[in-house]
């Protein structure tokens, strides 16, 4: 009767501590910077608005009935997805949060980058959200997604 209890306790301890799985549960986000200027814009019928600054400039992320949109705060027009060279800057800037896990961009196809450590990261431009999938340092596979929750509305 004591043996199953000990087995259960050891299993619970392993799941509580999660040795070697820190990278699998890590949330990767686009790096943001302080907003310098006070930008004025006229609000529309948006459900939510987030104003943020990245290495690529200032973004106004708005949620409408049709979903999220990445707008230019000055014109309120949809910002097109930048060319791969600019997206690479955004990826590299995000990877500075944990260079041991992500390394650098090894290859890139559109809004998906594969790192030198084998992690595949995909950017959702309309939400400025990163989703990662790939090997952890222990060799297991993981998949996580994160969105930016900071910003000014």
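^ Assign residues to that structure.
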């Amino acid at each position: 009767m004591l043996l199953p209890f000990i087995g259960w306790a050891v299993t619970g301890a392993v799941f509580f501590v999660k040795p070697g799985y820190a990278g699998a549960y890590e949330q990767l986000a686009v790096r943001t910077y302080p907003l310098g200027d006070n930008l004025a814009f006229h609000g529309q019928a948006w459900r939510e608005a987030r104003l943020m600054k990245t290495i690529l400039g200032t973004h106004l992320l708005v949620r409408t009935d049709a979903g999220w949109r990445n707008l230019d705060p000055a014109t309120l027009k949809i910002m097109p997805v930048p060319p791969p060279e600019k997206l690479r800057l955004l990826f590299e800037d995000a990877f500075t949060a944990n260079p041991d896990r992500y390394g650098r961009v090894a290859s890139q196809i559109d809004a998906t980058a594969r790192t030198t450590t084998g992690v595949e990261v995909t950017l959702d431009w309309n939400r400025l959200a990163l989703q990662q999938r790939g090997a952890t340092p222990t060799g297991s596979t993981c998949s996580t997604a994160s969105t930016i929750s900071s910003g000014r509305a």
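The first helix runs from residue 2 to 17.
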